[in-house]
Amino acid sequence: MNSNRRDFLKKAGILSSVAVTLPTLNSNVLAATKFNMSGYAAPKIDKVRVAVIGLGMRGPGAVDRLSYIDGVEIVALCDKHADRVERAQGILRKKSLKDAKSYSGEDGWKDMLKNEKLDLVYICSPWDYHTPMSIGAMKAGAHVACEVPIALTLKDCWEVVRVSEETKKHCMMLENCCYDFFEMLTLNMTRQGLFGEILHGEGAYIHDLLDLNFAKNGYDNMWRLRENIKLNGNLYPTHGLGPVAQCMNINRGDKMNHLVAMSTNDFQMGAKAKELAAKDSFYQEFVGKSFRGNMNTTLIRTELGKTIMLQHDVTSPRPYSRLHTLSGTKGFAQKYPTENIAFGHSFITEDKLKELYTKYTPELVKFIGEQAKQVGGHGGMDFMMDWRLIDCLRNGLPLDQDVYDGASWSSIVPLSFDSVKRDSRTVDIPDFTKGAWKTNKPVDITLTGGGTTKIRSKEGKVSGVQLDV
């Protein structure tokens, strides 16, 4: 056989082996971006017609917070259970606001999208509904604000991205921890170069939810407990990842490349189910189930050679922590167990930390922070997030979190499962921006072009004094 023939067969063999692997790739990865939603400024909406779906654990708080924001009209409320809708109506009535249209039942949200003209759909439903509701709302012509995570599978992450690009509708995942006061401080300090080049970040969701997950009157139909049975990995990565990703300009100058994830065994949930079932037959269906491990640790490497560590543990009896650790070439910051910043071997004094807060607290926080604390929602960060969202929509500004953030941060959920299942092997992280991360601009945390939205008083009227709660 001549050399040309051998070369041809060798190349053909290589191509053949590649062809075998191609079907495993999501076709969306290979498709060109239809429209880049990063930095996209949608047309201004003076009066934002809002619908809230899901009025169990998180929804009522959202209704309350949104009711304070001028320019918001809550026109529809929806939950599977009609009594929850009625209770949410009471929030509006107490503030002298008119009732919203009520929708209930398993498919009530679908009827709502068909019948109502909406500018924003605010989703607080169980996780499995996040993707179909987000997609349905965008296709119905509304922007979306959805609780975390935005999706539980890679396929759904890609689909949310595709529909957002196709419809040119914002799809913001409501990662409220990005609006925590310390996280916002460190983001601005990072922007000002005080930490140098951020080379490593750490985030977590460490929160003892063992009793709540097993509470009969907690999550509807015990849905969150059931998620802990079918999913073994990092079920809730975005609270820790979101703020770190913004500091490291993920999707805006850098991107996450691959990860490895490892979980402990379950040392408590199975035992808890058995203990409760011995006294109450209601819990018998959970006995013998394979619960996810107590602690999951996921390590991520970025395109620029930086690393991120994420942890998830909602079972072990230990203090709450999101870690929020940043390590740079010039400085270091960590939020838990206490807020600390260092520019060398020792942490700065409390007085120095106060000086940094005074000097580097972002304009957004200085403008709305104290009022946000009065309204509430995890110390005020929830309201700051909601106010900022509405102010951006009303002024035609890009949102702080776009659909690529929601997809990439949420993708850690299924990718961590995959790595754990395969004995902590490396798993690639898709580039949901399809290369646009190289030119996408960092999140703008100024109030340029905005800051015009007022806050209603507790009686439901807009005060003549700006931001008077």
Beta-strand percentage range: 15-25%
Mind telling me the C-alpha Rg? 23 Å
Give the quaternary arrangement of the chains.
single chain
Number of beta strands: 14
Structural class: alpha/beta
Percent of residues in helices comes to 25-40%
Main sheet record? 8 strands, mixed
Mean pLDDT, all residues: 91
Description:
This protein is of the alpha/beta class. 37% of the residues lie in helices and 15% in strands. It has helices at residues 3-21, 27-30, 59-66, 82-94, 108-115, 130-139, 154-167, 181-191, 210-213, 223-230, 238-247, 269-277, 350-360, 363-375, 381-395, 403-410, 412-421, and strands spanning 48-53, 72-79, 101-104, 120-123, 143-146, 171-173, 198-206, 256-263, 296-302, 307-313, 325-328, 332-334, 340-342, 427-428. The strands form two sheets. It has an eight-stranded mixed beta sheet with strand order 13-12-11-7-10-9-8-14. Strands 3-2-1-4-5-6 form a six-stranded parallel beta sheet, sandwiched between helices. A hairpin with a 5-residue loop joins β12 (332-334) and β13. α14 crosses α15. The radius of gyration is 23 Å and the shape is globular. The model is unreliable at 1-30 and 462-469 (pLDDT under 50).
Overview in brief:
37% of the residues lie in helices and 15% in strands.
Q: What's the SSE blueprint?
A:
Layout: H1 3-21, H2 27-30, E1 48-53, H3 59-66, E2 72-79, H4 82-94, E3 101-104, H5 108-115, E4 120-123, H6 130-139, E5 143-146, H7 154-167, E6 171-173, H8 181-191, E7 198-206, H9 210-213, H10 223-230, H11 238-247, E8 256-263, H12 269-277, E9 296-302, E10 307-313, E11 325-328, E12 332-334, E13 340-342, H13 350-360, H14 363-375, H15 381-395, H16 403-410, H17 412-421, E14 427-428
Parallel strand pairs: 1-2, 1-4, 2-3, 4-5, 5-6, 7-10
Antiparallel strand pairs: 7-11, 8-9, 8-14, 9-10, 11-12, 12-13
